[in-house]
Amino acid sequence: MCFLLCGLAFLAGIRSRALIEAKGQLENLNRMYLVLSRVSAATVRVRNREELFSDICSILVDSGGLAMAWIGMLNEGEILPVAHAGREEGYTGILKRTGLMGQEGPVSLMMKSGKPQICQDISTDPRMDVWREEALRRQYRSSAGFPLHLEGSRIGVINVYAAQPDFFSEEITRLFIEIGEAVSFAIQYLEQQGRRLAAEEGLRRLNAELESQVKQRTGQLEAANAELEAFSYSVSHDLRAPLRSIDGFSEILLQKHSAQLDDAARDYLGRVRRSSRRMGELIEDLLALSRVGRSEIHKEEIDLAPIARAVIAELDAANRCVEWTIEESVPVYADSRLMKIVLENLIRNAWKFTAPKNPAKIGFGSLGAEGEKIVYVRDNGVGFDMKHSGKLFGAFQRLHRADEFEGTGVGLATVQRIIHRHDGKIWAEAEAGAGATFYFSL
After folding, report:
1. pTM (2 decimals)?
2. pLDDT band at 97, cuts 50/70/90?
């Protein structure tokens, strides 16, 4: 019996360590998705190479949790570091002195082959022999390098260092390759001086107009709203029409010419349709978010309970086993139209994230705290880790994979904007696997 108990404890320990490692890998991957998003934004706004390289290195360290990042460019047959961020401590100076192209290290191999170079353990990787001691002294434990290209030629490298070994999983490596491609595209864009000067002039004019609008306050606000209306019209018609065409013609191909298509072609068309529909959903959600920010607020005494019951009535038609707990009356002073949007988003989120539960439990009600009324929507769904709660109300921020739960990541951003326009606040409490509660006050 003692032997059996020891064996079970050993297996439990292995499983616990595996879960911890998996969680750490997921957190690293989430950070890298955020890095990719911010790198993409940086490649659009930069004005020159120096600014681009500095921003990229800072994003990799600040958002990616990496120990250090540097970018080097090819100059007369040698790679010279031109930007860095993080715990550098003179390391790039050592690289310059030792020379990177004369060594059989990651950088020279990268420039020769054009392929990324991953060192999962600097302490044992022979490619790091020349720099191992200095790298370990700065607590670099693993590294990765990715080439930069301009018009088909390799012109430089991005190198990053992590404080733990085996950091660069296959998925993270794939994201870094995309980052390298994004930076390469930005470099190529910066080379096209004529178009860039025109773009800069356009940005200067736009900034001047925006500054003028801010200074003129109320009068200019009406002009800004008119411009936003025009933008919404453009998005509604100029973007959605091509998406409908893509989806429609793809459907025709699948329906009328399916016999002439092989399985791969049908799969590609299916992906095109799914992507176009998702883009359509994103456009609709962005338009809704834009309208919320511009619409006037008409506050009055209203009861949220009937609004919640109307939302629930629509959901109950789906024939799921859900135990609803709805407070009889929840009076507030607010805009009824906007509060309907708030409850639709919160209750539908609870409905969505309780899908794996049987029975699902969803509650709606209010409570008092220090003289103010707090309204809540509670569920026993999949929940989330509170360490990621800062991402909840950002547009396009998701705490669950798209293949697990559908959605665009705009709903909670819309809810927060409505609550803030009521001079209120919104927050959440949750536990992974044990449900979530969203609270708001007005």
Report:
1. 0.42
2. very high
